[in-house]
Amino acid sequence: MSSTSVKILVPGNHLMVGLLGQRDELLRLVEESFGGTTIHARGNEISIEGGEAERVGQLFEELLVLLEQGHLLDLVNVARTIDMVKADERPSEVLTAEVLRSARGRTVRPKTAGQKAYADAIAANVITFGIGPAGTGKSYLAVALAVQALQAKQVERIILTRPAVEAGERLGFLPGTLMEKVDPYLRPLYDALFDMLGTDAMPRLMDKGAIEVAPLAFMRGRTLNRSFIILDEAQNTTPEQMKMFLTRIGFGSKAVITGDVTQVDVATGRSGLAGLEDILGDIDGLEFVRLTRRDVVRHKIVQDIVTAYERAQGDGR
Q1: Which of 47, 183, 234, 292 fits 40 for a cystine, CB–CB 3.0-4.6 Å?
Q2: Rounded Cα–Cα distance for residues 98 and 95 (Å)
Q3: H or E, element range at 284
């Protein structure tokens, strides 16, 4: 690979500090990520030399766009930006897309190109399947888009549902009413709603019927119009339950089905999510989005765990 030289002019000392990081920690991360590339920062100029100088120059230009739009750069989001540039993706298009501004003033945005494709698919389709490992933001982004649709009056209510299945535990042995038994299974969805709506708005919307949280069994026999419906942990549906759910969707509604086909806890082992793309993949208005370990946005150790399990499965262990 031939060596090239690229120069980047940074418009302002404050941007230069944000670009390089405390004690140049972000600069060192970039150098480590592009072996054989040498980077020198002097004044408001960054000089790059090496076989990947042009790609590193593109990375710094993308980081400048993020800084100019008010993003704070740290080791985590710069590492994600590096991954996107290496995959010929545009981080400035991904990370600046706004899904929702939460009740606490925090903006919900996609953090990876896969998450951006997932959010775009939900916006464009009646039914979207988000399939991928833990930590990829499948449920959280779906809830954010549901809240956005409710606030924009595109739908009249949000319905959150989940099969009441968990490995090694049966509902009959848990104390309380059916809803009290099911509540722990739906807690992740509650938590996302509280985060986006605040503790005051959430109970009020539930009392009005604008937000409904129910086990999947409660969907039978209903037609769900003008609703944004999220079916979480769909790998734990049976094929019969999945068909029942999909045929509940009425006029003016949108549905998001999330799941991880590697985490099936159905007693029969027959998951309603596995193999479904072969059956439904050609239907207009319906899209399958597959998220991968590259889209894991929890602690880096979660991404490493997902990678290790994938490697073990590939080795037949």
Answers
A1: 47
A2: 8
A3: none
